[in-house]
Amino acid sequence: MKRHLLPFLFASAIAAQVPPRVLIEQYVADVSLLRRHWAITGDTTKSLDREQLMMQSWLQKLSELEFAKLTPTDQTDYVLMRNDLEGSLRHLSDRHDDMRELAPWLPFRSIIDGLTEQRVLGTPLNLEKAASALAPLARCVTDLQTKLKAAKEKKPDAKATSSKPTDATKKDTTIALPTAHQAQRAAETADALRESLKTWYGNYNGFLPDFSWWMKQPHEESQKALEGYAKYLREEVAGIKDKDDAPLLGKALGASRLHEQLVHEFIPYSPDELIGIAEREFAWCETQMKKAAQEMKVGDDWKRALLRVKLQYVRPGEQETFVRAEGKRAMEFVTKHDLVTVPANCAEWWGTTMLSPQAQKQIPYAAYGGHDVLVAYANEAMKHEDKMMSMRGNNRPFMRNVVPHELIPGHHLQRFMAERHLPYRGGFSTPFYVEGWSLYWEMRLWDLGYQTTPEDRIGALFWRMHRCARIIVTLKFHLGQVKPAEMVQFLIDRVGHEKFGATSEVRRFIKGDYSPLYQCGYMLGGLQLMALHREMVGSGKMTEKQFHDAILHLGPIPIELVRASLTNQPLTPDFKTSWEFDKAISRQ
Residues 477, 491: contact at Cβ < 8 Å? Predict the structure, then answer.
């Protein structure tokens, strides 16, 4: 054997034996590097095809491991990586579909993609050819905008069909008007393309002789046309003229896409079954609300009791102090009852930050920001009505439930532990674990009597009802059963939200920036952990602290795989969801 072949063969032998953890770390590094490599372009046909090739390559590498010879932890990692890769490949297909859907209103995209891809690939730039490619873009954009104006004035009916030009110079006589949501997305894409072109131009300008002579004018004209086009789409077609009062825009995904997402999240129920679970939990909450209302001497009128609770807000300027005091109270409770390990540094290193009035348009309630609790409260720049809604929506009893959710034993403790135990699993994070963990603690603290007054119980129940409502309205929206305005009204009428908060919530639910199941993860993840608590702690197999510490040490993974680890359940390479957790839940 030739000496120079030995290092290669030795490296191959080692690679064949590496545990999934090492593959995961390498895979994450590859994903990060590939996305940095194509950062200037955003999504293009070439960049998506290259990403797909990489994902398929990693899926092949994973399949070459001998699953039966792996440790239980490694088998879990194998299943996690396989599930993530398969989900990523489906998401790539969705991104291709999005490009095709918006193509009629972005026919000039190929011009910018061609220039930026050339830059990524390092192909020498031919200035005359580049100028000839870019020069028609501004006219293409302005002609397209003119056609859209004409289409908007004619108000075409649903039978109108869109033309799909294959290049920037093809002359079209008609074009269909995009929906408001399509117009919003097309505007965002046009802005992104304009920034890509600007970055491309800046890399050459002043460095490449004669570049400005060829490119300055077509670049400036293109920038101006793209900016105007995005503005037209956003304001005149999508109707987004005031960011503070923008219309509620989103796209219903349909039952089949929801089913794919549920399989990926290891949830063995249909959307309709999940709506049924949420409605059952909602009914339980209403019953408990009535009991608390009776304690407050208002009979069964829990909405009247809720209104009283909302008026128990602190004075402006006192919310941060109140949040910090509640954070310490929650820590003392879980420590006193020996419920979970709270490391000293975790207990010490956290803070608070006030959310700006603009931020509260998207985040009307407190949230966790990685170190701080992000505190929503009235600001002097707000309108009087918004000030009052913000104070009512962040009152004392509400916050006594929110602060443990965001801090300890909720998200702050969760993140602290995840960064110190199997941190490579962070890439597989799921809302059913991340949000489910904090919602589970709302339920567990309720069972342990953390709320000592009917007002505080109403505060806790409001949030639990809200999480039930999130499942109901988001799934029904994606099934095409409700409109955004109906979602807002449901949150107001059935849960008791202020209009300010309800509108902000729905805007975030439907925008499409994250998983359509994210809002379901709170309550359903909490129910999964409650079922697992009953199985492991209720049976005497684990103590409270052992159970909670073990979950935190496993990382933010699907809860069915948490259960498999705690119960030593055998896994298979193609492990699928089968745990019907709801059968273990009952309400008294």
Answer: no
For the chain, what are the domain ranges? 18-102, 106-241, 257-567+577-582
- Integer Cα distance of 263 and 548 in angstroms: 26
Q: Apex CA 129: angle with CA 123 and CA 135, to 5°?
A: 125
- Chain length of the chain: 588
Cα 42 from Cα 106, distance rounded (Å) = 14
> In 3-state terms, the chain is what percent helix, strand and coil (to 5)?
65, 0, 30
DSSP 436-500: HHHHHHHHHHHHTT---SHHHHHHHHHHHHHHHHHHHHHHHHHTTS--HHHHHHHIIIII---HH
Q: For residue 178, which phi and psi values (nearest 5 degrees)?
A: -70, 160
* Tokens, residue 319: 């919310």
Query: Are 378 and 393 spatial neighbours (Cβ–Cβ below 8 Å)?
Result: no
Residues 362, 4: Cα–Cα separation, whole Å? 60
pLDDT tens per residue across all 588 residues of the chain: 444 444 443 344 344 568 999 999 999 999 999 999 999 998 999 999 999 999 999 999 999 999 999 999 999 999 999 999 999 999 999 999 999 999 999 999 999 999 999 999 999 999 999 999 999 999 999 999 999 999 998 864 444 444 444 454 445 457 899 999 999 999 999 999 999 999 999 999 999 999 999 999 999 999 999 999 999 999 999 999 876 667 899 999 999 999 999 999 999 999 999 999 999 999 999 999 999 999 999 999 999 999 999 999 999 999 999 999 999 999 999 999 999 999 999 999 999 999 999 998 878 889 999 999 999 999 999 999 999 999 999 999 999 999 999 999 999 999 999 999 999 999 999 999 999 999 999 999 999 999 999 999 999 999 999 999 999 999 999 999 999 999 999 999 999 888 888 888 898 888 887 888 999 999 999 999 999 999 999 999 999 999 999 999 999 999 999 999 999 999 999 999 999 999 887 654
Asked if 393 and 500 count as a contact pair (C-beta separation under 8 A), the reply is: yes
| β-bridge pairing 372-375 and 351-354 | parallel
Asked if 76 contacts 561 with a C-beta cutoff of 8 angstroms, the reply is yes
Q: Are 509 and 250 in contact (CB under 8 A)?
A: yes
Distance separating alpha carbons of residues 581 and 588, to the nearest angstrom: 17
- Cα(233)–Cα(303) distance, rounded to whole angstroms? 42
Is the pTM higher than 0.85? The answer reads yes
Phi/psi of residue 479, nearest 5 degrees: -85, 0
Residues near 459 by Cβ (< 8 Å), separated by ≥ 6? 309, 395, 396, 397, 398, 399, 400, 401, 451
Q: Residue 125: is it exposed, middle or buried by C-beta count within 10 angstroms (0-12/13-18/19+)?
A: middle
Using the 8-state DSSP alphabet, how is residue 184 labeled? H
The string over 393-402, giving b where at least 16 C-beta atoms fall within 10 Å of a residue's C-beta and e elsewhere, is bbbbbbbbbb
Segment (H or E) for 372: strand 372-375
Give me the residue label for tokens 């995009």.
178
Task: Name residue 372's beta-bridge partners.
Answer: 351
